[in-house]
Amino acid sequence: MSSSESSEQKQYFSTELLSWYRRHKRDLPWRRSRNPYHIWVSEIMLQQTRVDTVIPYFNRFMDKFPTVAALAEAPEDEVLKAWEGLGYYSRARNLQSAVREVQERYGGVVPDTKEEVASLKGVGPYTTGAILSIAYNKPEPAVDGNVMRVLSRYFLIEDDIMKGSTRVSMEKLAQELIPEGAAGDFNQGLMELGALVCTPKSPSCLTCPVMAHCAGRAAGMEESLPVKTKAKPPRPERRYAVVIEGAAEHAGRVLIRQRPAEGLLARLWELPHAAVPTAPAAAEARGEGGDPAAAHAALAAHLAGDGLGLGPVGWLMQAEHTFSHIRWEMDVYTGRLEEASALLLPVPLPPHYRWVNREEMEQYAFPNVFLRILNAYFGR
Ligand code: SF4
Predict the structure, then answer these.
(1) Tell me, what's the pLDDT at 2?
(2) DSSP state letters, 29-95
(3) Does residue 320 have an active-site annotation?
(4) What is the edge-to-edge ordering of all strands in the sheet holding 269-270?
(5) Of 68, 131, 274, 297, whose CB is crowded by the most CB atoms within 10 A?
(6) Is the pLDDT of residue 56 over 70?
(7) Average pLDDT of 198-202?
(8) In the chain, what are the domains?
(9) Alpha helix (H) ranges present in 124-273?
């Protein structure tokens, strides 16, 4: 690529993309204002999540927490509940703790300098660029995987986009491309082109506003770019879970518990579950009907740690949940607690356990996999 071609190609890209975006942009709720708080929340929600999924969550979240102050003051459990189903819950926790910092340190006004925005919890280089450019129209690049895909194709860049050095050079390129005074619209145009036209599979080059100068397309490489080394697939982890059914005054309820304050899915609610002890051999036996004796042994040993005894269990269903690095493959059973003694006294519950029925479930935030199991259980 000679330097004159390069600058003409860049100029063309910037001009055409900006005018295309202004004509074709989708009407999305967070685009109706330049409120930095709205932009921030939307960008956090949109990480790893599709626009269509985010829209109702964003609207509900803004009804509930319309301002920085409202989110800063809200109990964390309410925020997690509003996030329920979006996954990656650390995003919600980091967002709230950063919003609290904005409330305390900046009087509730989202700051407008790169240093201050980038120092907020959970706000990486992409989100920093998005907030500064969209809300404040500052010429900062906002480069994520979608943007790197578009730039790799248009400029025929064959560097591995999983490498940090590629991201740095893409950020430099993206910054050079920003037309004067139009950072917000240009960055959104890049994201929009990646979402609607220059899609991961089968890009719609024939309707693309920058096709005339797209080097990747000219070389017939639009489908093979970007170069991306494969991330490691999530490691399967087999687990037994149990829906413990209540009796007597807890009839119609099931037992849930809260996860610890730190670590995976922190503070969310779940059904008791335990790892399958010898996964490789047991994996072969996985199937409808499960292995109630093995499941009982593992779950009973696990619950004994909380002072609870478990009666016999029966098969309910299978369920799966994929995190970025682990995939839980669950065999789910139903069962009851054993009474504490021959006097049939009710078992005292540890403080992080609750009995809930279908309505009471609504007050607690669950990871998707447990919501699916509980909905299937109560919907039987
Ligand atoms: S022409 Fe095709 S490959 Fe090039 S930017 Fe447009 S959609 Fe992407």
Answers:
(1) 44
(2) GGGS---HHHHHHHHHHHTTS-HHHHHHHHHHHHHH--SHHHHHHS-HHHHHHHHTTS--THHHHHH
(3) no
(4) 269-270, 254-258, 353-356
(5) 131
(6) yes
(7) 96
(8) 3-218 (1.10.340.30), 235-378 (3.90.79.10)
(9) 125-130, 136, 145-154, 164-177, 183-196, 215-218
Which residues surround ligand 1 with Cβ inside 6 Å?
A: 150, 153-154, 197-198, 203-205, 208, 210-211, 214, 216-217, 222
> 255: which strand partners?
355
Q: Which residues of 193-223 are buried (b: 16+ CB within 10 A; e: fewer)?
A: bbeebbeeeebebeebbbbebbbbbeeebbe
Range from 157-171, 265-279, 289-303, 338-352 that averages highest in pLDDT: 157-171
User: What is the β-pairing status of strands 326-337 and 235-244?
Assistant: parallel
Length of the chain: 380
Structure tokens at 313: 């269990």
d(CA 6, CA 335): 67
What b-and-e string marks burial along 92-115, b requiring 16 or more CB atoms within 10 Å of the CB? bbbbbebbbbbbeeeeeebbeeee
Pocket test for ligand 1, best of 10, 147, 156, 222 (most atoms within 8 A of CB): 222
Two tokens, residue 58: 């964003």
pLDDT, tens only, 305-322: 998 999 999 999 999 998
Which residue, chain included where needed, has tokens 């399958």? 276
- Can you read off the two tokens belonging to residue 300? 């009973």
* Residue 282 pLDDT > 50: no
Instruction: Give the Å distance between the CA of 26 and the centre of ligand 1.
Output: 19
**Closest to 96 (Cα-Cα) out of 369, 365, 368:** 365
Q: Are 240 and 331 in contact (CB under 8 A)?
A: yes
